[in-house]
Amino acid sequence: MAWINMGRKIHKAMYKKVKGMVGIEAAIVLIAFVIVAAALAFVALNMGFFTTQKSKEVIARGLEEASSALEIDGAVIGKNNVTAKKLIGVAIPLRLASGRSPVDIKRTSIEIVTANNVVVLSANDITPVTNPSSSDPFSAAGSAKAALIEYQGDDDYLIEEGEKWVLVLDLTQTLGTGLNPYEKITVEVKPPVGAPLTVARVVPPDLSETYVVLG
Description:
alpha+beta, 7-stranded mixed sheet, 4-stranded antiparallel sheet, 13 strands
Protein backbone atom coordinates (compact mmCIF):
# COMPACT_ATOMS: atom_id res chain seq x y z
CA MET A 1 0.00 0.00 0.00
CA ALA A 2 2.88 2.27 0.79
CA TRP A 3 4.21 1.85 -2.73
CA ILE A 4 0.81 2.49 -4.19
CA ASN A 5 0.34 5.68 -2.18
CA MET A 6 3.79 6.87 -3.12
CA GLY A 7 3.01 6.24 -6.80
CA ARG A 8 -0.18 8.21 -6.52
CA LYS A 9 1.67 11.16 -4.94
CA ILE A 10 4.30 11.11 -7.68
CA HIS A 11 1.56 10.99 -10.36
CA LYS A 12 -0.29 13.93 -8.80
CA ALA A 13 2.91 15.99 -8.62
CA MET A 14 3.75 15.26 -12.26
CA TYR A 15 0.16 16.12 -13.32
CA LYS A 16 0.29 19.47 -11.54
CA LYS A 17 3.67 20.28 -13.16
CA VAL A 18 2.37 19.40 -16.66
CA LYS A 19 -0.81 21.38 -16.06
CA GLY A 20 1.26 24.41 -14.98
CA MET A 21 3.43 24.18 -18.10
CA VAL A 22 0.38 24.02 -20.35
CA GLY A 23 -1.07 27.09 -18.64
CA ILE A 24 2.16 29.07 -19.14
CA GLU A 25 2.36 28.06 -22.82
CA ALA A 26 -1.25 29.10 -23.38
CA ALA A 27 -0.57 32.46 -21.74
CA ILE A 28 2.51 32.99 -23.93
CA VAL A 29 0.51 32.17 -27.07
CA LEU A 30 -2.29 34.51 -25.98
CA ILE A 31 0.20 37.34 -25.33
CA ALA A 32 1.75 36.74 -28.74
CA PHE A 33 -1.67 36.99 -30.40
CA VAL A 34 -2.39 40.23 -28.52
CA ILE A 35 0.94 41.75 -29.59
CA VAL A 36 0.42 40.74 -33.23
CA ALA A 37 -3.15 42.10 -33.20
CA ALA A 38 -1.93 45.39 -31.68
CA ALA A 39 0.79 45.69 -34.34
CA LEU A 40 -1.71 45.04 -37.14
CA ALA A 41 -4.14 47.56 -35.64
CA PHE A 42 -1.37 50.19 -35.50
CA VAL A 43 -0.44 49.53 -39.13
CA ALA A 44 -4.10 49.77 -40.20
CA LEU A 45 -4.62 53.03 -38.28
CA ASN A 46 -1.40 54.49 -39.64
CA MET A 47 -2.40 53.62 -43.22
CA GLY A 48 -5.83 55.12 -42.58
CA PHE A 49 -4.35 58.40 -41.32
CA PHE A 50 -1.92 58.50 -44.25
CA THR A 51 -4.71 57.91 -46.77
CA THR A 52 -6.88 60.57 -45.14
CA GLN A 53 -4.05 63.11 -45.26
CA LYS A 54 -3.34 62.38 -48.90
CA SER A 55 -7.02 62.68 -49.73
CA LYS A 56 -7.14 66.09 -48.06
CA GLU A 57 -4.09 67.21 -50.05
CA VAL A 58 -5.61 66.02 -53.33
CA ILE A 59 -8.92 67.77 -52.55
CA ALA A 60 -7.08 70.98 -51.64
CA ARG A 61 -5.07 70.88 -54.87
CA GLY A 62 -8.22 70.21 -56.86
CA LEU A 63 -10.03 73.14 -55.29
CA GLU A 64 -7.01 75.36 -55.89
CA GLU A 65 -6.89 74.42 -59.56
CA ALA A 66 -10.65 74.69 -60.02
CA SER A 67 -11.04 78.18 -58.54
CA SER A 68 -9.47 81.38 -59.76
CA ALA A 69 -6.88 83.22 -57.68
CA LEU A 70 -8.12 86.58 -59.02
CA GLU A 71 -11.37 88.50 -58.73
CA ILE A 72 -12.85 91.61 -60.34
CA ASP A 73 -12.56 94.51 -57.92
CA GLY A 74 -15.11 96.99 -59.22
CA ALA A 75 -16.57 98.14 -62.52
CA VAL A 76 -14.92 97.42 -65.86
CA ILE A 77 -14.30 100.66 -67.76
CA GLY A 78 -14.12 101.08 -71.53
CA LYS A 79 -12.41 103.82 -73.54
CA ASN A 80 -13.98 104.91 -76.81
CA ASN A 81 -12.93 106.58 -80.00
CA VAL A 82 -15.84 108.97 -80.10
CA THR A 83 -15.21 109.99 -83.71
CA ALA A 84 -15.00 106.42 -85.05
CA LYS A 85 -17.64 105.11 -82.63
CA LYS A 86 -15.45 102.23 -81.51
CA LEU A 87 -14.35 100.77 -78.18
CA ILE A 88 -10.56 101.02 -78.19
CA GLY A 89 -9.57 100.19 -74.61
CA VAL A 90 -10.63 98.18 -71.57
CA ALA A 91 -9.61 98.62 -67.92
CA ILE A 92 -10.35 95.71 -65.53
CA PRO A 93 -9.76 96.23 -61.76
CA LEU A 94 -8.29 93.13 -60.10
CA ARG A 95 -7.59 91.81 -56.63
CA LEU A 96 -6.43 88.56 -55.08
CA ALA A 97 -9.20 86.17 -54.09
CA SER A 98 -9.57 85.57 -50.35
CA GLY A 99 -7.24 82.92 -48.98
CA ARG A 100 -5.25 82.47 -52.19
CA SER A 101 -1.49 82.63 -52.69
CA PRO A 102 0.00 85.74 -54.37
CA VAL A 103 -0.08 85.78 -58.17
CA ASP A 104 3.15 86.42 -60.04
CA ILE A 105 2.32 88.76 -62.94
CA LYS A 106 5.57 87.75 -64.61
CA ARG A 107 4.03 84.31 -65.09
CA THR A 108 0.53 85.45 -65.99
CA SER A 109 -0.87 85.36 -69.52
CA ILE A 110 -4.00 86.85 -71.11
CA GLU A 111 -6.34 85.64 -73.82
CA ILE A 112 -8.66 88.02 -75.67
CA VAL A 113 -11.56 86.53 -77.61
CA THR A 114 -13.99 88.31 -79.93
CA ALA A 115 -16.22 87.11 -82.75
CA ASN A 116 -13.35 87.54 -85.22
CA ASN A 117 -10.16 87.26 -83.18
CA VAL A 118 -8.41 85.15 -80.59
CA VAL A 119 -5.27 86.80 -79.24
CA VAL A 120 -2.96 85.34 -76.61
CA LEU A 121 -0.62 87.65 -74.72
CA SER A 122 2.28 86.09 -72.85
CA ALA A 123 3.79 87.57 -69.71
CA ASN A 124 6.39 89.31 -71.91
CA ASP A 125 3.58 91.18 -73.68
CA ILE A 126 2.26 92.65 -70.41
CA THR A 127 3.93 95.78 -69.02
CA PRO A 128 3.97 95.97 -65.20
CA VAL A 129 3.55 99.47 -63.76
CA THR A 130 4.18 99.77 -60.02
CA ASN A 131 4.35 103.56 -59.72
CA PRO A 132 1.64 104.92 -62.02
CA SER A 133 2.02 108.52 -63.12
CA SER A 134 -1.75 109.07 -63.36
CA SER A 135 -4.94 107.99 -61.61
CA ASP A 136 -6.34 107.38 -65.10
CA PRO A 137 -5.26 103.80 -65.90
CA PHE A 138 -5.37 104.41 -69.65
CA SER A 139 -2.93 107.32 -69.27
CA ALA A 140 -0.80 105.33 -66.79
CA ALA A 141 -0.52 102.45 -69.29
CA GLY A 142 1.06 104.79 -71.85
CA SER A 143 1.78 103.14 -75.17
CA ALA A 144 1.69 99.56 -73.81
CA LYS A 145 -0.68 97.21 -75.57
CA ALA A 146 -1.34 95.52 -72.23
CA ALA A 147 -0.41 96.74 -68.76
CA LEU A 148 -0.94 95.65 -65.17
CA ILE A 149 -0.94 98.77 -63.01
CA GLU A 150 -0.51 98.65 -59.24
CA TYR A 151 -2.47 101.39 -57.47
CA GLN A 152 -2.09 99.98 -53.97
CA GLY A 153 0.70 97.62 -52.96
CA ASP A 154 4.36 97.18 -52.12
CA ASP A 155 5.88 97.85 -55.56
CA ASP A 156 6.75 94.24 -56.41
CA TYR A 157 5.40 92.07 -59.23
CA LEU A 158 3.06 90.02 -57.06
CA ILE A 159 -0.68 90.55 -56.74
CA GLU A 160 -1.10 90.09 -52.99
CA GLU A 161 -3.94 90.33 -50.51
CA GLY A 162 -5.13 93.88 -49.99
CA GLU A 163 -3.51 95.23 -53.16
CA LYS A 164 -5.31 97.03 -55.99
CA TRP A 165 -4.35 96.35 -59.61
CA VAL A 166 -5.86 97.36 -62.94
CA LEU A 167 -5.41 95.47 -66.21
CA VAL A 168 -5.47 97.82 -69.19
CA LEU A 169 -5.79 96.53 -72.76
CA ASP A 170 -5.26 98.66 -75.85
CA LEU A 171 -7.60 96.97 -78.34
CA THR A 172 -6.18 98.82 -81.34
CA GLN A 173 -2.83 97.13 -80.66
CA THR A 174 -3.96 93.74 -79.35
CA LEU A 175 -6.80 93.18 -81.83
CA GLY A 176 -5.64 95.53 -84.58
CA THR A 177 -8.90 97.46 -84.42
CA GLY A 178 -11.53 98.71 -82.01
CA LEU A 179 -14.88 97.06 -81.38
CA ASN A 180 -18.24 98.17 -82.71
CA PRO A 181 -21.42 98.53 -80.64
CA TYR A 182 -23.00 95.20 -79.57
CA GLU A 183 -19.79 93.25 -80.16
CA LYS A 184 -18.78 90.89 -77.36
CA ILE A 185 -15.29 90.71 -75.86
CA THR A 186 -14.06 88.04 -73.47
CA VAL A 187 -10.82 88.46 -71.54
CA GLU A 188 -9.24 85.55 -69.68
CA VAL A 189 -6.52 86.34 -67.15
CA LYS A 190 -4.52 83.14 -66.61
CA PRO A 191 -2.39 83.05 -63.44
CA PRO A 192 0.30 80.37 -63.06
CA VAL A 193 -1.88 78.44 -60.56
CA GLY A 194 -5.64 78.15 -60.55
CA ALA A 195 -8.43 78.62 -63.04
CA PRO A 196 -8.40 81.70 -65.28
CA LEU A 197 -10.48 84.74 -64.42
CA THR A 198 -13.00 85.23 -67.24
CA VAL A 199 -14.42 88.68 -67.92
CA ALA A 200 -17.07 88.92 -70.67
CA ARG A 201 -18.64 92.20 -71.72
CA VAL A 202 -20.75 93.56 -74.60
CA VAL A 203 -19.93 96.92 -76.19
CA PRO A 204 -22.80 99.32 -75.43
CA PRO A 205 -24.68 100.97 -78.29
CA ASP A 206 -23.85 104.52 -77.19
CA LEU A 207 -20.16 105.37 -77.66
CA SER A 208 -20.57 109.13 -77.66
CA GLU A 209 -18.52 109.59 -74.43
CA THR A 210 -14.79 108.95 -74.05
CA TYR A 211 -15.29 106.59 -71.12
CA VAL A 212 -18.10 104.11 -70.55
CA VAL A 213 -18.92 101.69 -67.74
CA LEU A 214 -19.09 98.15 -69.07
CA GLY A 215 -20.38 96.71 -65.81
